[in-house]
Amino acid sequence: MLSSIRFVALASLLSSCVINTPVGTAPVSTAPVSTAPLALPNPNATPATAPSVSTGQPTNNAEITDAKLAEISGITASSIPTVRFWAINDSGNDSILFAIGNSGELLGQYLLPEKNRDWESLSRTQVGNQSILIVGETGDNRRHHKQYQLHFVAEPPLSAETKTPVTDYHTLRYRFPTDNHNVEAMAATGNAIYLITKEPLRQGKPTAGKLFRLDIDNVKSDVEQVATYMGQMRLRPGSLTSSLAASIANVDLNQATALTFATDESAAYVLTYRHVIRFAKHTNQSWSDALLGQGRVIHTHGLRQAEAMTIDDDGVLWLTSEKLPAPIRMLPTYTQFE
Q1: Residue 148 in domain
Q2: Is residue 279 part of a domain?
Q3: What is the pLDDT of residues 156-207, one digit of tens each?
Q4: Which of 135, 160, 270, 284 fits as disulfide partner to 151, beta carbons 3.0 to 4.6 Å?
């Protein structure tokens, strides 16, 4: 979450600067966003040898215009066919889970009886046969909180009630081993949750985010967990735009604002204020090793304050921004073979 002054400065900068591809990255999709139907790849194509990432044409699928959703800080794909994704607002808003439809329409509101101190991330996982939403109270801009919370909520059915009370949930409390951290990028895969810290500029210079892991073998345990430090992320190459953002708005455009894992566990995707970055996971490689490796920029999105991204079961990335109207960007991803 950015202050309003920094947001205005950042939005003006991103809208006026020419998009530059940082040195050493993969080719970036910077073509004008289309609204035409997408031609998805043939899943039955015969692969050859070395896999490489490609993306379909980015499409603005819809816009979110409802005033209740003015500060979206996290989204996650839904298992309910009529719901495109779930969404949350960040601090200063009600503790509500929002069900969003294909056209950005609000389908339902679910009131969680927990304070929204700083909800900054949202994910979904499977526990047994139950689909579970994970609401991350992971934000800490001033880095003064000693403890953080993840609320595990049974994915509710659609309800016509205005604000349906959430009763089936449990809270996991955790802390970091040493310093306190601000996190906007949190996602679950398998029996683990990964968190990427969002680091401030130090003397005008970027600092790489840190990767932590939480185990969720027993999500109903009341014992506070200590997140395990896995390593430091790699710094992205700088650009004129990122240098200007640092000097004018005091913002590091390359910090992680969202994280999501492909359902086939082939890759993780990290969102920043400028890019979508893909981290491929090879056979027998751990997620920690994959995320601490060299990711590839696959898309430069141009959204004003992109802080929310998810991937659905069809391998389509969905991303959106704070502030209204918020475009819903659709980015198909798939694996090609060279």
Answers
A1: yes
A2: yes
A3: 999 878 899 999 999 999 999 999 999 999 999 999 999 999 999 998 899 9
A4: 135
Give the whole-angstrom CA distance, residue 78 versus residue 311: 10
Q: CA-CA distances (angstroms) from residue 58 to 232, 274, 275, 319? A: 30, 14, 13, 11
- Has residue 241 got a pLDDT over 90? no
Contact 287, 192 (CB under 8 A): yes
Q: Which residues span the domain enclosing 238?
A: 4-19+59-337
Tell whether 37 is covered by a domain: no
Total domains, the chain: 1
Q: CA-CA distance, 307 to 310, in Å (whole number)? A: 11
Q: What DSSP letter does each residue of 88-127 carry, written as one string?
A: EE-TTS-SEEEEE-TTS-EEEEEE-SS--S---EEEEEEE
- CATH number for 89: 2.120.10
The Cα 137–Cα 119 span in angstroms is 4
Check residues 101 and 51 and name the one with the higher pLDDT: 101
DSSP classification of residue 274 = S
